[in-house]
Design brief:
133 residues; mainly beta; Immunoglobulin-like; five-stranded mixed β-sheet; three-stranded antiparallel β-sheet; 8 strands; 13% helix; elongated
């Protein structure tokens, strides 16, 4: 009995199948993947290396993605290198942490640690200076 299938229906040679599979794999690897949205500090009050007047100071840190406030931390490093945990205030939103502190003149650092909703923890320092009255 003879094969009466048209030529285009005959199975492709093994090398051609391999080339097609390799091209398909390359396309799948080149496809964009979902972004891993680490929380990155994009804006702050005071700004990094900025200056604020002594007294009651509102600190505001804005991130590029939503963060889990309950698992995030703000630490204040005072000019004498002592540390205090800052309470994250009610004015915070899904990507902004707000707190207040009474500060005297000197060089300060807010050390922040946030948990992005994608499960990644990021950390950083926000240095600023408090000036006299």
């Amino acid at each position: 009995m003879t094969d009466r299938r048209p030529a285009q229906q005959v199975a492709a040679p093994p090398m051609r199948r391999l080339a097609v599979l390799a091209a398909l794999a390359a396309c799948l690897l080149a496809a964009p993947l979902p972004a891993q949205a680490h929380a990155i500090l994009v804006d702050s009050t005071p700004p990094a290396l900025g200056h604020v007047a002594a007294g009651q100071v509102t600190l505001r840190l804005r991130y590029n993605s939503r963060i889990d406030r309950g698992r995030s931390r703000l630490e204040l490093i005072r000019p004498d290198k002592s540390q205090a945990t800052l309470v994250i205030g009610a004015g915070s939103t899904e990507n902004v942490l707000v707190t207040t502190a009474t500060l005297t003149p000197g060089a300060y650092v807010v050390r922040w640690q946030v948990l992005a909703v994608d499960g990644h923890i990021t950390r950083g320092d926000l240095p600023f200076t408090v000036t006299g009255p």
